[in-house]
Amino acid sequence: MEAINRHAIKWIYEAGQVIREAMSQPLTIDTKSNRNDLVTSMDRNIEQFFAERIRATYSDHLIYGEEGYGDEVTSLQGIVWLIDPIDGTMNFVHQKQHFCISIGIYKDGIGEIGLIYDVVADILYKAMRGKGAYKNDKRLPNLTKEQALEDSLIGMNHHWLCDNRIADKAAMQQLVKTVRGTRTYGSAALEFAYVSEGILDGYMALGLSGWDVAAGMVLVSEVGGMTTDIDGSTVDLLSKNAILVCNSAVRTRLMEEFIKPGRKME
Amino acid sequence: MEAINRHAIKWIYEAGQVIREAMSQPLTIDTKSNRNDLVTSMDRNIEQFFAERIRATYSDHLIYGEEGYGDEVTSLQGIVWLIDPIDGTMNFVHQKQHFCISIGIYKDGIGEIGLIYDVVADILYKAMRGKGAYKNDKRLPNLTKEQALEDSLIGMNHHWLCDNRIADKAAMQQLVKTVRGTRTYGSAALEFAYVSEGILDGYMALGLSGWDVAAGMVLVSEVGGMTTDIDGSTVDLLSKNAILVCNSAVRTRLMEEFIKPGRKME
Quick one: which of B253, B153, B151 has its CA closest to A35? Predict the structure, then answer.
C-alpha cells in the first residue's frame, strides 16, 4: 500500500499540473443526463490520465470512475481505485477553483487510501488507514467529541429544503434554524475534506456515487468521524447514496431529531 | 479620493497582518443578540484599529461600523467609512478562513471606494468609482450580459427556503430547481466580491447592514452589476436590508419570476 500511495500522490500532482496549465484554454463542455449535469473534456482527460497509469503499473487493479475509462466494477473484491477526476465540475466551469481530484483506493471493500487534491489551492488532503490524515504535511487532529449541534456548521445543499425523495423538508427547515450555520461549496469531496479538517462539523448530501465519497470516507475515518447512508446503514460504494458524514458529537442528534423522523420510505 | 484610497489600502493590509498573527492565539468570543450572532475580540480590535487611524488622519470623516467604535451616523452627508472589520465572523471562528475585512467609503451617499480583503487568501478586491474593479492587480472584466438563469450559480443561504418575513419559500424552492447551482459561503462581502468576479452570477441575502454591502456595491457597480433592495428600490445603507446583487443578464428573471411574486408585504 505504501508504494501504491506514493504512485497515487505522484500522479495526482501531475494531473493537477495538467489541469492548471489547461485552465487558460477554452473548455469543451457537455451535459450528461441533464442541463446541470456537466462534464468537460477535462473530466474525461484526467480520468483517462489515471486509467492509463494505473493499468500500466498495476494491471490487476480495477478502476471505478465517473467518466467511463474505468472497468465494469460489480464488486469491491481485490484492489479498486474509485476516481472522480474533477469533483465539483460546476465550480471548475464557473469558478475555475473550488474543485478537486478525489481518489479512494480500497482493498476487498476496505478503504486503504484517501486522497483529495484541491488543485487551485494546491492543498492535498491525504490519509492511509491506521496512519492518520494530513492536510499537506500537517497532521489533522481528531475531531471534537464535544460540540452542541447549536454551535455547529453543517454542509448541505439547498435541495434538502425542496421537495425531494429522501428527507422531509420541514424537518430540514428546523435543522437550518437549529444549527449555527449552513454552507454549500459544491464539491462533495472537498466538503468531506472540510469535515476531516473540522471546519465543517457535518456534511449531508443527496445522490452521491462511490467515486464522490470513497476518498473522503478514509480521511474522515482517520480523524474519528463517521460516514453512513442517511438511514444509518453502511454506504454502498457501487450505488447512489444519500449520505451523512460528521463528527461523533453531532451525529446522534442529527440522525434522531432531524433525519430519521422525516425519512421517507421508498 | 486617491489619497484616501492609498491610506485605506495601507491600513487594510496592516490589519490583515494583525489578524494573521493573532490567529494562533485563543479567541474571546461573545454573542451579541443571540447564540449565533458571534462577535470576537478580533472584530472589536480591528474596528478600533481603523477608527483610531481614520480619526487621526481624517478628523472630519465619519465611521459607520458594526462594533461600536464608530460614530452615530444618521445621514451619509460628507465622507463616511462603512466598516465591517471581520465579515464572516462565524467562518473566522470555525474555519480560520473564508472571512474578510470590508470597507466602503462614501461621499454624500455615493460609493467612491470599495475594498474587500480576504485575509487568509491574501486577496484584495478593490474599486474606485469610475476606475474599474480589481482582484489584487488584475482588472476584472465587465460581467456577462448574456447568461440564462438556468446556467447560473446563485449565492444564497438556506433561510430563504425556511419560513421568513421576506420571501415566499415555495418560490425560492422553484428558484433552486431552476438555476444550475446554489452556493453558501457565509460572508456577504466575499459573496459580493465573487459576483464582481463573475464566479457567482448573483447573491441574495436577508438582513444585511450597510457595512456588509457598502464595499461590495462599489465593486459590483464597476463591472456593470447592480445591487438593490429585494423589492427593487435603492439600498438604504443605514438600515437592515434584504438585497439582490447580480449581473444584468439574470436580474429581470430573478426579480419578476421568483422574488416579486412571492414578496411579502410587511
Answer: B151
Do residue B36 and residue A180 have CB atoms under 8 angstroms apart? yes
Best mutation target among A32, A35, A89, A94 (most B Cβ atoms within 10 Å) is: A94
How many whole angstroms separate alpha carbon A1 and alpha carbon A8?
10
Amino acid in the structure at residue B229: D
- Taking alpha carbons only, the member of B201, B212, B198 closest to residue B241 is B212
Reported ipTM:
0.93
Q: What is the DSSP letter of B153?
A: E
Mean pLDDT taken over chain A: 93
Q: Are strands B123-128 and B133-135 parallel, antiparallel or unpaired?
A: antiparallel
Q: pTM to 2 decimals?
A: 0.94
- Give tens-digit pLDDT for B81-90: 999 999 999 9
Q: Where are the alpha helices (DSSP H) in chain A?
A: 2-22, 41-57, 89-95, 169-178, 188-197, 210-222, 248-253
Q: What's the CA gap between A115 and A126, in Å, rounded?
A: 5
Closest residue by Cα to residue B87 from B8, B191, B10 = B191
Chain-chain contact of A153 with B96 (C-beta, under 8 angstroms): no
Domains of chain A: 2-139 (3.30.540.10), 149-262 (3.40.190.80)
Per DSSP, the three-state class of B214 is helix
Q: Which of these ranges, A226-240, B21-35, B130-144, has the smallest mean pLDDT?
A: B21-35
Query: B158 — contact with chain A (CB < 8 Å)?
Result: yes
Distance CA(A62)–CA(A75), nearest Å, equals 10
